[in-house]
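Please go through this chain and its backbone structure tokens and walk me through the local backbone shapes. Keep your notes short.
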Amino acid sequence: MPHDAATEREARIGDAHAKRAGKDIVALGIALAAILMFVGTGGSVLPRVIRALAGEGLGPDRLLTSALFLNIALIIFGWRRYRELTGEVAERRRAEEQARHLAEIDPLTGCLNRRAIGPEADCLIAGANARGEAVAAIMFDLDKFKQVNDVKSHAAGDALLVESARRLQARLPEGTLLARIGGDEFVCVLSFDPDQPGQIDRLAETLIGEVARPVPFKDGEVETTISAGIARRNPGGSEDAQTLLHHADIAMYHAKKQGRNRQCWFEPAMESELRFRSELEEGIRRGLTQGEFVPYYQKQIDLDSGELVGFEMLARWNSPVFGMVSPEIFVPVAEEIGVIAPLSEQLIRQALSDARSWNPGLTLSVNISPLQLRDPWFAQKLLKLLVEANFPPNRLEIEVTESCLHDNIGLVRSLITSLQNQGVKVSLDDFGTGYSSLSQLRSLPFDRIKIDRSFVATVLESQESQTIIQSIISLGTGLGLPITAEGIESEEVLAKMRELGKFSGQGYYYGHPDTAENTEVELAQLDLLLEAPQPRRDEPDEQLPAARSA
């Protein structure tokens, strides 16, 4: 609720309470006055009534009698109002308690929420400090939780959160605070003996193991792991709850970066790293809007003939702050912050525009992030880009990494079928490093296999690499799939690969990835453009070789 609205609401409640209190005071005053009047009038009227009933005197004065009955009525009114007032007070207390509960408790898991954990942790810190104890904050984040929501369902995600909270609570020592502070983030705060930090390590290991156990859901199971970050406050330390939780969050992020499903203690150097990460995220978002991400092109060559057969599009980030940034740095970050899809679409759109002027015999290969495979509309989005660019689908090749097949084989099969029905080819990239089985490979209609560069780079000195490459060649031949070898970087490696089989190849031996402008110039010199490119504004006008027509 906005601050102004909340203030206004509190003012209205306060006014209502004030009015009600005023009415209560009036009612109480009337009751007290009635009791006093009853005592005064009753003292004179009641004895006369008793004597009159006994036949010993005259009856009481009518006016005084009426006053007495009025006093009785007022006393009854006051008593009833008192009973109502008592009930209202009790109801107010129940409502206030319910409001406090709603404000401080997470409704899904029953844990404390982000609003409540700070003040509660500060109280725990104060008590621990007085006893000479240290305080630890352990931040937990469920690994790849979004995948559970996307692949399974949000109901499965909720079930996983509830059960994870239950398991955490069951293993935590008495007096530990447990809060859910985000969608899939939990934190616990507890005191411990400052001379025995190992007990916190053991506790974190236990909690990680507990959450990793499968959670039954409907006819199957839901599984996850957690990454944990631990921050410590020594007795007499200056850290408050907010600082402690912040440090635990930094350590948790570091644990995720190191591979997930593990724990990590906070160190001051991590804060600088996180600051750089934040600047990187901001730069990526800004770069998307300002066109800083550009496609580079790496040649693909037929190893037997030496002819150019196509290009692979590789992403580069031309940042005004960080310079030319490699995709190994910015792609994982873009995936984590959820912008990999628009970034990839932006690059593909530009690549299709660049490749439209190439000779129609040249293909264009683009890599697809595993996260994009979870989008059921990805094939339609890609076909829309092809239509917009007026680019022939049969010249486009989509590269899917082998690691994508482990959890998304059904989605991958649907994607491949949709694209191939429109003429787009699909290749299996980094083959030999993932999780696919031969049966999966046989069931998925790939158009090409790409041998991972790690095998090609070591083919001269490793018999194991040679054996793996020969096995891949045999597999490709048996399945009727052409093969591309990545990472050819020397004459010796090229010669060895030619001995092993027939395939196309790419690598630094044929040249480093280059800009669209330089690629066009080279293609023009090779007579492989539909039309000659115009000289760049920063270059002198020069005669280019005549280009071959379509």
